[in-house]
Amino acid sequence: MNRPLLPIDRFLRRNKLYGQGIDLRPYGAAFLDEMERGLAGKSSSLPMIPTYIETSRAVPRGERVVALDAGGTNLRVAVVSFDATGQRVVENLTRHRMPGVDEAMDREAFFRALAGVVLPAIDGRERIGFCFSYPAEITPERDGRLIQFTKEIKARGVDGELIGANLSRALSAAGASRPPRIVVLNDTVATLLAGRNALPDRRFDGFIGVVCGTGLNVAYVEQNARIRKTPGLDPAGSQIVNTESGSFARGIHGPVDDAFDATMATPGKYRHEKTISGAYLGALCLFAARAAARAGAMSAAAEPELARLPGLSTRELNDFLLFPDGDGSPLSAACGRLPASDAVALYRLCDCLVERAAAMVAVNLGAVLLKSGVGRDPRYPTCIAVDGTTFWQLRTFRLRVESHMRRLLVGVWERAWEITSVEDAPLLGAAIAALTN
User: Fold this and answer.
1) Would you say 64 and 45 are in contact if contact means Cβ atoms under 8 Å apart?
2) How many Å from the N-terminal Cα to the C-terminal Cα in the chain?
3) Does residue 403 form part of some domain?
4) At residue 429, what are phi and psi to the nearest 5 degrees?
5) What pLDDT, on a 0 to 100 scale, did the predictor assign at position 4?
6) Are residues 36 and 74 in the same domain?
7) What predicted TM-score, i.e. pTM, was given to this entire model?
8) Phi–psi pair at 86, nearest 5 degrees
9) What is the pLDDT of residues 146-185, one digit of tens each?
10) Is 343 within 8 Å of 320 (Cβ atoms)?
């Protein structure tokens, strides 16, 4: 016998905040349609960016390259190689503040500072792999043209500039007699490459790279013949495509999502990411909880109590889900001052939004699996390499994603996959890109 719907359940369903039992196939079909449109150069919420990074070449053994990882306010520099068994060797790893974080600087000062931390690692080496996780357009030369800096970087005049070419010139000015060739890629592409090299004794049918942490993105390998918007590609070849999937606009969005989006600095953009990623999920849960209280889905005491909370990070959301009676989350503290029925409603709301986020990640991965055409033989699954704290640390998130993937794919669109994590994926992927491209 089904229990009667609680007021919070009616609120969740009315606002499309419910994650369990949704038919995901229409969303998967919409994602596939947006991918096709993006590859064809038609109007699409998925940019489907060619990276010109290939995966067909074996990773050479014993050759040392410089690897850079710049994805936020910190920069890592190391010398990386792979031994005879394919195991990574990371040497001279150093960590620095990203130029432009602590003080504003112009273009010349930015690249001079960047060259200053890279130069000691070069020592005659001929290649640099640069995992540059800021919005950038990748050129056929595998350089990256910065669209705009994010994540607190203050560097005037760098927007629109080629990162690799400018770094190469700065290295020459700093004393490098022959600056290395620089390959620029983002963290999702680097994660795919790191996953490809992580299990050399296993046979996989294909590889997908996923970042599901502060942000959300997926990269996969596409046949050049299908990238119709880019002329001149070798139709017999293939390359990694960066889907920029966080911008998918045809996901599950209801009135609360619309109101939440309107409060953001980028309304109308990155709608998919705003329902899933760590930068938004905690804040969305608190926003939805306040809306539920105003709508009468909780007691009269809930609205003023929730209004007093300063905010809710995704880390604090996870603390609440793991330890609802603990002191690590402001939501737990609020529940201690509210009736038990409100505490149950708040937990139910947060759990449902996490469930919905997992369902939409499953849609994202399922569509990419289908589009790439890999994983048909259960003996040789697709390796899905995932980097990011939301996927790996948010309570039961990975299990939920895989459960929804099974509902979406198994029996109808049959595919086999295996999810793995790779330590230091951005750094290792950068090295592999330099060694193989």
Assistant:
1) no
2) 60
3) yes
4) -65, -35
5) 65
6) no
7) 0.93
8) 90, 0
9) 988 876 688 899 999 999 999 999 999 998 888 889 999 9
10) no
Residues 6+ apart with CB under 8 A from 227: 39, 48, 50, 233, 239, 241
Angle of the 340-372 helix axis to the 281-294 helix axis, nearest 10: 130
> Per-residue pLDDT for 20 more than 90?
no
Place of tokens 């669109």: 413
Listed range (159-173, 174-188, 275-289, 307-321) with the worst mean pLDDT: 174-188
Say if residue 349 is in the same domain as residue 411: yes
Q: What sign does the CA torsion over 321, 26, 210, 72 have?
A: negative
Q: Which of 244-248, 357-361, 409-413 has the lowest mean pLDDT?
A: 409-413
Distance of alpha carbon 243 from alpha carbon 45, whole angstroms: 10
Q: Tell me what pLDDT residue 6 has.
A: 82
Among residues 137, 153, 185, the one where a domain terminates is 185
Q: H/E/C letters for each residue in the chain?
A: CCCCCCHHHHHHHHCCCCCCCCCCHHHHHHHHHHHHHHHCCCCCCCCCEECCCCCCCCCCCCCCEEEEEECCCEEEEEEEEECCCCCEEEEEEEEEECCCCCCCEEHHHHHHHHHHHHHHHHCCCCEEEEEECCCEEECCCCCEEECCCCCCCCEECCCCCEHHHHHHHHHHHHCCCCCCEEEEECHHHHHHHHHHHHCCCCCCCEEEEEEECCCEEEEEEEEHHHCCCCCCCCCCCEEEEECCHHHCCCCCCCHHHHHHHHCCCCCCCCHHHHCCCCCCHHHHHHHHHHHHHHCCCCCCCHHHHHHCCCCCCHHHHHHHHHCCCCCCCHHHHHHHCCCHHHHHHHHHHHHHHHHHHHHHHHHHHHHHHHHHCCCCCCCCCEEEEEECHHHHHCCCHHHHHHHHHHHHHCCCCCCCEEEECCCCHHHHHHHHHHHHC
Q: Which residues form the domain of 14? A: 1-51+200-437
Identify whether residues 175 and 206 lie together within a single domain. no
The average confidence (pLDDT) of the chain is: 93
Give the model confidence (pLDDT) of 326-342 as tens digits. Answer: 988 999 999 999 999 99
